[in-house]
Amino acid sequence: MARSRTLLVDGREYPPQGGTGISRVLDGLVRALVASGCADEVRLAVRPACAAHIAKECPGLVRRELPASRLAAEVALSRLARGSAVTLSPYPKVPVWAGPARVVNIVHDVLNITHERYRTSWRARYARVRLAHGLRRAALTWYVSRWSRDATAALMGWTGRDARVRHSGIAAEFSPTPQVDDAAHRGALGLAPGYVLVLGNGRPHKNIGVALSLSETLGRPLVIAGCSDRWRLWWQARYPTAQAVWLPLVPEAALPALYRGAFCLLHPALIEGYGFPPLEAMACGVPAIVSDIPVLRETAGGAALFAPPQDHDAWRVALARLEDGDERRRVCEKALAAVAARVGPRAWDAHVADIRELFDSI
What we know:
Layout: E1 6-10, H1 21-36, E2 41-46, H2 52-57, E3 61-65, H3 70-82, E4 86-89, E5 102-107, H4 111-114, H5 122-137, E6 140-143, H6 146-156, E7 163-165, H7 182-188, E8 195-199, H8 209-214, E9 222-225, H9 229-238, E10 245-247, H10 255-260, E11 262-267, H11 276-283, E12 288-291, H12 294-300, E13 305-307, H13 312-322, H14 325-339, H15 349-360
């Protein structure tokens, strides 16, 4: 028999090392849920050797390690879900055999299904099946943006039984206040302050060719962080004369220092579900130049500089604007004010209230 207010969080998306958007979502949300006391017990199910840090930092969190095998992990997670009152899936990968547990599902985006480069792959077909299952199974579906909700409606014909837009929070560590170990973190990455930063996985929809095309005339180092070797080689083949420092993996603890050392962040994505890097940069007091696409208009508001994703000259003009010290300070101040309510534990208040409401309905 499940305890009356037990909450299981599917942590399979935690990587062995941090530094991904989903790991930051999980960290912030799990911390807020544990601190709120909304559940009698919060259980986090993870793959081997993952998420040990948050179990140490959150007294009361119960960590459950899943088998390494994908199928065995699915079975084990479903068993844990059947013993919990509510199960939270941070991606639309609801446990297949979850049983009667109330399920909360998070949809970040559907671009892995709809983007022209991915939509014919078996992975896209599988993702669509899992998304359909999650929407049918979930009592509540969170969308990280209105854009993600509308894109899901266009793709699937509906958005689930109870669809709510809930913007993800930003960790309090993303702050404009310099820390004593900032220089050490940047030094370990071989960086001195003043670079132009691009942060992301480097897949084609991230459109980092815009930054690479400008690299020879920037007058500042271009740093591209988070891009795997596969996609680095893909981009280098297309921009063989571009000049950039490539950082495939940045430790989670070094990310705020990486942002604080940047002159600005470029985020030229063709499509996004939310857009963490611009918001994190803005929270660190660093101006962001982002693609003029609907989702980034929604999440970054009027506090970023916008440029059409394919207009390289517009990005060059926006960069030149920031070389004016007064203009850069004005943009930074506006950015800090815009993201203030999304930083720290309070950013997750609506998520916590939704979980309380779900428990109360059982």
